[in-house]
Amino acid sequence: MSLKNIYLIVGPSGSGKTTIASVLEKAFDLKAVESYTTRPPRYEGERGHIFVSDEEFDALGPMCAYTEYNGYRYGVTADIIDSHDIYVIDPAGVNYMRSIDGYQGSKKVITIRLEVDREQRFQRMTARGDDDSTIINRLINDYKSFGPEEDDIRYDMIIPNNDIVETVETIWHFIQCWEGE
Predict the structure, then answer these.
(1) Per-residue pLDDT tens over the stretch 124-149
(2) How far apart are alpha carbons 45 and 141 in whole angstroms?
(3) Selection from 137, 174, 181, 177 nearest residue 12 by Cα
(4) For residues 173 and 162, what is the distance between their CA atoms, to the nearest angstrom?
(5) What's this model's pTM, rounded to 2 decimal places?
(6) Residues 71-76: contacts with CB under 8 Å, at least 24 apart
(7) DSSP-assigned states of every residue in 106-162
């Protein structure tokens, strides 16, 4: 199944973006984008990215979504967006995707913002094994990214992610509405 829209899942670190995308992918047979990145994997078998060298990244051609974080580049090509349904992305990536150099494909771009309070995000990052310095750096980066970078983004849906089952059900309901099902 390929949806007529691409659903961008946006939220700060620990908000559950990757988990939500994974559950939607498995439960409803959706296809999640794996973006290209020049950073090394955090752990063996890490999903969500295709890990490439700087040279390989440069050879991919034009990106319709692009961002840099911590000295590493992240991006995706239009053909990948056209053949996928959901994409975990940050505010800078959303802004790039909607810019004149961004995505020009056939899918409508729908943005879904996950909200989770800082304390709960800290607990989630700790539970997944992030060390304190990594967590602090992510919280600082999120403070910057979800401030001015986010000011221009008009979200189609903003949803608290306090209960994964409820969040997934709500998002799926809205996807069905946006798809005209």
Answers:
(1) 788 888 888 888 887 777 777 776 55
(2) 25
(3) 137
(4) 17
(5) 0.84
(6) 72/37, 72/38, 72/39, 73/36, 73/37, 73/38, 74/35, 74/36, 74/37, 74/38, 74/39, 74/49, 75/35, 75/36, 75/37, 76/33, 76/35, 76/36
(7) SSEEEEEEEE--HHHHHHHHHHTT--HHHHHHHHHHHHHHTTGGGTT---SEEEE-S
Question: What is the per-residue DSSP string for 56-120?
Answer: HHHHT---SEEEEETTEEEEE-HHHHHT-SEEE--HHHHHHHTSTTS--SSSEEEEEEEE--HHH
Structural domains in the chain plus CATH codes: 5-178 (3.40.50.300)
Q: In the numeric block, which tokens belong to residue 33? A: 């984008």
pLDDT at site 142: 74
DSSP state letter for 177: H
For every residue of 2-36, DSSP letters joined together read --SEEEEEE--TTSSHHHHHHHHHHHHT--B--EE
φ, ψ (nearest 5 deg) of residue 44: -65, 130
- Is pLDDT of 74 > 90? yes
Confidence band (pLDDT; 50, 70, 90) for 82? very high
